[in-house]
Amino acid sequence: MGFQRTLLSKIMSQVKLFHNSDPVKIQLRNETNRSVSLTDYVAEKCPSLVGPKAVYHPTSYLFNGHLQTGYAAYHNYSPTAHEVIYERELVDTPDGGIFSLDWTPTKEGLENDQTPTLVVLHGLTGGSDESYIRCILEIVTYPPFNYRAVVMNSRGCANTDILTPHIYSGGYTNDLRTALKHIQSRLAPGTPLVGIGFSLGSNVLVKYLGEEGDKTPFKAAISVANPFDFRSSMDRLDESFIGKNVYSVAMANNLKKAFGKHLDTLAKGGKINPDEIMSSKTMRQFDDACTRKMFDFTTVNNYYRDASSCRFIEHVKVPLLCLNALDDPIAHGICIPYDEIKTNPNIVLATTKYGGHIGWFEHNAYPTRWMAKPLTEFIVAMFQAFDVRDNQGDKLEPANIDDTIDQIQSHVSHGKTA
């Protein structure tokens, strides 16, 4: 019994928060304009981040970041209790390219209501079908929440074509600007938007927010497993055997698979050598052969420096939650810009000791993602703060939110899908 207690104590992680000593105030228009600090609001609405319930218990056999990260790849094909059904829309870019938007539950009639809308950015070579995205959307787009979501699939991702010699990157934010302008044109005026980005997508989101300051249409945002500092993150990968020979190789292969079918189009710009790209073995080699050349950087390290959201995070002007696991082998904990985050009153950083890269699996028989609770709590809190609809439905308390998530995730655990 004593051994079991010791083992459990070793594989539990109290959530730790980092923030400015004088957080920004939020005006709650739906609560007689009550003014509350961001951290006090998080404490009220997000028990998975603050208080006795703010503890993450990893799946016992996924006890380190490598195992959590590896299981995430396996789990990516797992069903959700609520099927997330998308309706696709292609959006033209100013240079003649396209990216796709996957709307759920529908892309029709958007101009007729002001349903709060979650804008989602995926990770490297990902897309709307990623399990880390579906595990959130299966909750927030279904009763009792009934919010809307739209996933932005980057050029070449999620079966989106590449029509011009131009790709996306971790530092390219213009396609996001185009997406937001289009999304706003489809929605009723005043519809609140909250952004959430995962991994590479979180870096793009935070960099964009820092560039835009108070000009962004987002009311709030969430960054999940952000690498923050590309140069440092890549150095950490190259320093370890598994980083350089497993993770870096896997990411490079995913990029070659995504862009390989479009090499003839990409080569028309005269910037890249397709053979050099396809012979690259690691992430750094791919970025040197392709990414930095496509975006006109003289060295790959200059690309990494320019793309890193740690340079922009202190300029973010909307409430931003950052969630990172300190044992993440890809978005390494040492790269988190603690000082810059603590200078900004708009940001709350939450860290866990365990969780891997977009893992955070808990339970043993049928692991599900713990992150669904804190992320949903924050999404609902921000939407409730900025919802402009006359009929907003019943206000959900945090306990009701967490109970709903438990019920949804238990359906998958028992093999029941809607």
UniProtKB/TrEMBL annotation:
GO terms for molecular function: acetylesterase activity; monoacylglycerol lipase activity. It comes from the Eukaryota. InterPro entries: AB_hydrolase_1 (IPR000073), AB_hydrolase_4_sf (IPR050960), AB_hydrolase_fold (IPR029058), ABHD4 (IPR012020). The active site is at S199, D328, H357. GO terms for biological process: medium-chain fatty acid biosynthetic process; medium-chain fatty acid catabolic process. SUPFAM superfamilies: alpha/beta-Hydrolases. Gene3D superfamilies: alpha/beta hydrolase. Pfam families: Abhydrolase_1. Residues 116-239 form the AB hydrolase-1 domain. Belongs to the AB hydrolase superfamily. AB hydrolase 4 family. This is AB hydrolase-1 domain-containing protein.
